[in-house]
Amino acid sequence: QGHVAISKIRWWVGQHQARALPPTLSRDLARQLWAVWANLSACSLLGRFTISTLLGGDEPPPPAAYDSSHPSHLTHGSTFYMRTFGYNTIDVVPAYEHYANSTLPGEPRKVRPTLADLHSFLKEGSHLHALAFDSRPSHEMTDGLVEDEAGTNGEKNPEEPVRFGWVKGVMIRCMLNIWGVILYLRLPWITAQAGIVLTWIIILLSVMVTSITGLSISAISTNGKVKSGGTYFLISRSLGPELGGSIGLIFAFANAVGVAMHTVGFAETVQDLLQEYGSPIVDPTNDIRIIGVVTVTVLLAISLAGMEWESKAQVLFFLVIMVSFANYLVGTLIPPSEDKASKGFFSYRADIFAQNLVPDWRGVDGSFFGMFSIFFPSATGILAGANISGDLKDPAVAIPKGTLMAIFWTTISYLAISATIGSCVVRDASGILNDTVTPGSGACEGLACGYGWNFTECSQQHSCRYGLINHYQTMSMVSGFAPLITAGIFGATLSSALACLVSAAKVFQCLCIDQLYPLIGFFGKGYGKNNEPVRGYLLAYAIAVAFIIIAELNTIAPIISNFFLCSYALINFSCFHASITNSPGWRPSFRYYSKWAALFGAIISVVIMFLLTWWAALIAIGVVLFLLLYVIYKKPEVNWGSSVQAGSYNLALSYSVGLNEVEDHIKNYRPQCLVLTGPPNFRPALVDFVGTFTRNLSLMICGHVLIGPRKQRMPELRLIANGHTKWLNKRKIKAFYSDVIAEDLRSGVQILMQAAGLGRMKPNILVVGFKKNWQSAHPATVEDYIGILHDAFDFNYSLCVMRMREGLNISKVMQAHINPVFDPAEDGKEARAGGARLSVSGTVDPEGLVQEEQASTIFQSEQGKKTIDIYWLFDDGGLTLLIPYLLGRKKRWSKCRTRVFVGGQINRLDQERKAIISLLSKFRLGFHEVHILPDINQKPQAEHTKRFEDMIAPFRLNDGFKDEATVTEMRRDCPWKISDEEINKNRVKSLRQVRLNEILLDYSRDAALVIITLPIGRKGKCPSSLYMAWLETLSQDLRPPVILIRGNQENLEKGHGGHHWHFPELIPQGRKGNQQKHQEEGPLLREPERLAELLKDGEGAASEPFSGPGPTLTPDKAKAPSGNACLSRAAWKTISWQTGAPSSDLRESLIQEQRMLCLWELKKKNSPCWKPNFEQ
């Protein structure tokens, strides 16, 4: 009954959403189904939702299940109500599925209601209504829902993939990969060379590195859901795609070559057996190739058969190795035969153990680090279990437990074999049965003499063929049955080769799916229930065969070892970095790790890389860096919540807070702009202009005011923010996007000006576009526009107004909404007055913002050899000069010549020109020309004056013949209109704007950019329409963009007089008295001789920093060199003498040093104040 009811409910929901049922029938059917559903107290339900959720907001919902006025429904006393908390409410009880990132295909997603569903109202189309029964598969999650216990969908569940526990999936796999031929063929030899004590130290040092790495792996793997990809997944999701991608690629390649290494080791052992029995196939080299290719083909077939068969093969190899170990231990207990005794085996002896405790170095590799470099690769292989993380039942449990247990048991085996074989076998033996001697004979030397054997001759001549230090097959000789040791060698090599083959394909598949590198996506496709990377297997097989055919891996082997060590170093660093960032998301359930131990593990892994093979370490690090830089350059669009992001946040927070502790200084001034762009893609020219001079220098915020009721605009606010940010990033504009909702534009801009920014990183310049349609727009919008400019000055902002002949707004081609206060006419829309309230029509598609074709603007193209014309009419603190200087530093504008125009008197042109040149030289702006405009105050032409009067005529109050009461009422109703008195009081300013426009047309018609001082209309004395007429008149008919700038009347530039220091030692001899001459030479010079003038410091210009005996350099502003202006007090106090005068060489050296330090300090800050005229 329960299954039938649930199926009916699902059918009804689909019909209701499709509008296939009449509303009345739909409600009746809903009530019937609800009555059935309410009685299913024992039924397991997929989701919790009320009938109002199903019906939506368009139709009145039936009575709620918890409404006590309807006894037919649930009541507080019903059993179902009491036993099922959370059933009768939209709010949901905690469930794992709400936090998972994915769902099972074909299953409905269980979602929690949004805040709007709980707080506001539930309507059709809401988050809960749309998603409660969305059966489409999700690609954003990793876990999914609990399956329907009864399979109510009637669909057959797909066959479950094979999943392994911690023993079979991790511990056995890691142990097999750690054990290898070194255990059988080199550990006895290392014990003979280093002695038992140092061998144990070598083993424990190696295990210390792998154990620390194992702890780091355990911590990372228990910090959230681990999917397939193994080492690559762990590193990439911790440190980000840059390091993760590079390590993933080389780790997969190293495993593929590792298949060849272990296969060749197996082939060499088989080839030795064939040679021993006199049955070679062709010759030794080709025998290795033939055996290797056949073996790796068999391993490929096992892998293609699936993980289940591969796991069975690994268990078989494990059993073979266990039998070989038991065979060896039994052999050490069996009394030695004459043949074994002749080869140095005498069973357990205390004196042999004592002699083998100490080292006996022999050969070129006879050193501690030589033995360490040979043994360490045998301790690796701890990542074999983590590399198949996607095939584990519970990776968070299996990886820590299995990896650490594998390290423990393999360590025990290494230590035990080293101690036992060092207690049974002497270092030198001849293997000759006739080398017997009577115990106690004086001609015999060595421990073997006490057991009846004389190995003195071969020991002295270094010709012994057997013994612990001479015979690599000592374990086979000691064992009870030698072929079982050979079988153990086969099992160790083949299991390691098989593990490397699987690891290479699995890791590479995950890397291909993430698509961090081009042309590899083909290999990411999976097949079968386990999503087997068949194409990855074939690729790894091809790489292995290529290296097997070479049949000589002595050069490649150390590179592979270094690639594995790179992985260890980065895993440890991932754990350390995630811990040190203190991110709230770093909460591993495995607690037995230390961030400092992880850092030590990372460092020691790098050290071991260079101890093994320094050139191979350089190659490995070089490959990692190359791949790292490629990913950084490509910037893949992935977001994995890496610790690098957490570290970036910490640094940003720390530096932002640190800025609050430093007082603002004129030399550190930066133009931080709040740009009223609306949607940034509507005004690309405005965005590009500000982005050009703020790039890598200062803050830029694109402000957007959404006008209307908050409830209506809030969904749009959340929707469009990411799209606008993506648009800025795609256009390579380094800026922030900030939006607010307000009842009108002016209120929204006031909010932005007060709240935008963080700490010291707050805007100090407001940048707006020119309101081109002000004459046809509703006067209230013009009043708001001018009010924003006044508000900027009230908040002590500087102001920039940008005008382009073609207009700034391109939204008419985008079919999107536009703020009518800026430029509705350019969109083909008419502004509609609604009192003080302004409406906004249309919507914005955030995907369209990213896909929008980039409009070409003047600020994105090369400007060539044009001019940047600056009309510095009034002193506003220097912003009018600083912005064009910053613009000219950019490549696209670097070829433009900068001209400065200032007003002056006809009879003092030369004096004023020299004064301006002298002032500009102190600012070090490097402008090319200075022009004095003597005719600014001349009357403009009559037709131009007439045009201005016609422009303002519609906005005149015409109050000359009206009574005072009428005039007062008119001014109250139309504050933007211009009275006769205001026209008379502002006539001089009005005529000045007309005349300036004539001058601009004469001088700057073909300029690349015109920058002019913004005139200010006094608040309350200059109506908005008159002020807009000034701006219109001043900038009309000009082809180049016009930027009207007004600083906040505070100094942004500082000359070299007063408190600024200088370099008197840089002044050439015989030129100190020629400052006046150089000031009279006209345009600014870039000759080295002028440096003395540019650094001139008035009264202190002739003072020497090293005058008199025993000088001390101090920060005294009158006598200290100008380096003190950019170096700290502490830095200068270190350069001092208490007694005696420095020698001339020392003095010259110090002068050069302080000069270089100062130049370097200023240059590296990229400070706007760093603008020397002397560029050489």
TrEMBL record:
Compartments reported by the entry:
Apical cell membrane
**Annotated TM spans:** 166-185, 197-222, 243-267, 287-306, 315-334, 368-390, 402-421, 484-513, 534-553, 559-580, 614-633
Q: How does it sit in the membrane?
A: Multi-pass membrane protein
Show the InterPro entries listed in the entry: AA-permease/SLC12A_dom (IPR004841), AA_permease_N (IPR013612), SLC12_C (IPR018491), SLC12A3 (IPR002948), SLC12A_fam (IPR004842)
Answer whether the UniProt record assigns the keyword Transport to this protein: yes
Q: Which Gene Ontology molecular-function terms are recorded?
A: ATP binding; sodium:potassium:chloride symporter activity
Is Ribonucleoprotein there in the keyword field?
no
Biological processes per GO annotation: cell volume homeostasis; chloride ion homeostasis; potassium ion homeostasis; potassium ion import across plasma membrane; sodium ion homeostasis
Q: Which UniProt keywords apply?
A: ATP-binding, Cell membrane, Chloride, Disulfide bond, Glycoprotein, Ion transport, Membrane, Nucleotide-binding, Phosphoprotein, Sodium, Sodium transport, Symport, Transmembrane, Transmembrane helix, Transport, Ubl conjugation
Q: Which residues form the Amino acid permease N-terminal domain?
A: 75-144
Residues forming the SLC12A transporter C-terminal domain are: 683-817, 854-1051
Q: Where are the coiled-coil regions? A: none
Where is the segment annotated Disordered?
Answer: 1100-1122
One GO CC term, this protein: apical plasma membrane
Domain named Amino acid permease/ SLC12A is located at: 169-674
List the Pfam families. Answer: AA_permease, AA_permease_N, SLC12
Q: Which reaction does it catalyse?
A: chloride(out) + Na(+)(out) = chloride(in) + Na(+)(in)
Biological function: Electroneutral sodium and chloride ion cotransporter, which acts as a key mediator of sodium and chloride reabsorption in kidney distal convoluted tubules. Also acts as a receptor for the pro-inflammatory cytokine IL18, thereby contributing to IL18-induced cytokine production, including IFNG, IL6, IL18 and CCL2. May act either independently of IL18R1, or in a complex with IL18R1.
So what family is this one in? Belongs to the SLC12A transporter family.
Q: How does it assemble?
A: Homodimer; adopts a domain-swap conformation at the scissor helices connecting the transmembrane domain and C-terminal domain. Interacts with KLHL3. Interacts with IL18R1; this interaction is increased by IL18 treatment.
For this entry, the protein name equals Solute carrier family 12 member 3
- Which species expresses this protein natively? Monodon monoceros
